[in-house]
Write a structure and sequence with these properties.
The chain is built from 12 helices and 11 strands. It has about 375 residues and is of the alpha+beta class.
Length: about 375
């Protein structure tokens, strides 16, 4: 029997952040029992605040609408513009799903929770629908608040599966990768090849990498991207039918992450530059090329493909950070001239560009 935990009689707000993530290599094979490398990105984050009810006997739970949850618009044009940019749904439904799943987890594990209620509110500067994992960031930040408020301990290795279950309940097409890196932070190599472990335990084998192993990286993103979740559907169905072409290419995508892990390990220990950095860039390019072959340029979207082509046009390497809407870029020579040319070319096409700032994780080593 699990020992019960009761929320302390706290008065102060609880605020937590969860950061955007960049899939450096291997995605989308994480959803197909593959391997990947992800990076926690300090540039963008979601923030959730839990405010305990001032009346300690009040059990009311309130989820405040956030910046993408408005149901009142100045005009039809405004409604259309906001919907095109942010989609139909905001973050309130994510926090509601989290509260449901958190309660379910606590009931199952026989945690005794305080009756005192709270208010949840969120904010986020993660570009919407850009493949930077903005939805799961809201859930992860909220989960941190709930665990702190109720003094409930959920092992780190179990948290990504709980977060993923919230999104699956809402019909969001997702894999474990995003939730793992947002819970663990830093740089993590993930191996999901043990299908039984993934299916029965909701986790893979995770190995931390030192942030120092990464060369300088950049993020290119579009302020008006297409929905990054739509491009998965047909490939998933083909994979489940046993389509040999999809299965073979998805396996090759996973192998790119495995090779990238060896390259990054070398960069982290030997402080090498030059050939290992070029090899990493070539793996990134190959990752996107295989994705394009599987999904097709039409499914990826002309604007997304243009983003990659523009970044590569300056001699850099580029791939999606997730399913589209943003790219991670590695400059081949890491020179100021190449970087400036890449920035200028991308900005001329209307894309935004910024250096990737890694959000540090815990000390390197085996994560789970």
């Amino acid at each position: 029997m699990t020992v019960g935990h009761i929320c302390p009689d706290a008065q102060d707000d609880i605020t937590n952040r969860a950061y955007a993530r960049v899939g450096l290599l291997g995605n989308p094979s994480d959803g197909y029992f593959g391997k990947c490398i992800s990076v926690s990105v300090q540039n963008f984050f979601a923030e959730v605040t839990l405010t305990p009810n001032q009346q300690i006997f009040s059990s009311r739970v309130t989820i405040e609408p956030g910046p993408s949850d408005s149901t009142v618009f100045e005009s039809l044009d405004t409604l259309a513009a906001r919907t095109a940019k942010n989609g139909y749904y905001g973050g309130a439904r994510l926090l509601r799903a989290l509260c449901f799943k958190f309660h379910e987890h606590c009931v199952k594990n026989e945690y005794k929770l305080s009756e005192r209620g709270f208010t949840l509110e969120y904010d986020s500067n993660i570009p919407t629908q850009a493949g930077l994992s903005g939805s799961s960031a809201i859930i992860v930040a909220g989960l941190k608040c709930l665990m702190q408020y109720y003094s409930v301990y959920i092992p780190l290795e179990e948290q990504p599966a709980l977060v993923l279950s919230c999104e699956h309940d809402l019909g969001i097409n997702a894999g474990l990768q995003d939730r793992v890196i947002q819970c663990y932070e830093g740089v993590v190599y993930m191996d999901f090849s043990d299908e039984e472990m993934v299916r029965t335990q909701g986790k893979g084998v995770y190995t931390r990498l030192s942030e120092s192993c990464l060369p300088s990286l950049h993020i290119v993103y579009d302020d008006n991207p297409s929905d990054s979740g739509k491009v998965h559907a047909d490939v998933k169905q083909r994979w489940e039918r046993g389509d040999e072409d999809v299965r073979s290419k998805m396996s090759r995508v996973a192998e790119l992450a495995e090779r990238g892990y060896r390259v990054l390990s070398s960069l982290g220990t030997d402080k090498q530059t030059g050939e290992p950095t070029i090899e990493l860039g070539m793996l990134m390019n190959a990752n996107f090329n295989l994705r394009k072959e599987m999904f097709g340029a039409e499914a990826l979207g002309a604007r997304n493909v243009e983003m990659i082509d523009t970044a590569r046009g300056a001699g850099s390497f580029a791939k999606f950070t997730g399913s589209g809407g943003a790219a991670v870029v590695l400059c081949a020579t890491e020179s100021e001239e190449e970087r400036a040319a890449m920035y200028a070319d991308c900005e001329a096409k209307g894309f935004k560009v910024c250096p990737l700032v890694v959000n540090p994780g815990k000390p390197s080593g085996r994560a789970a």
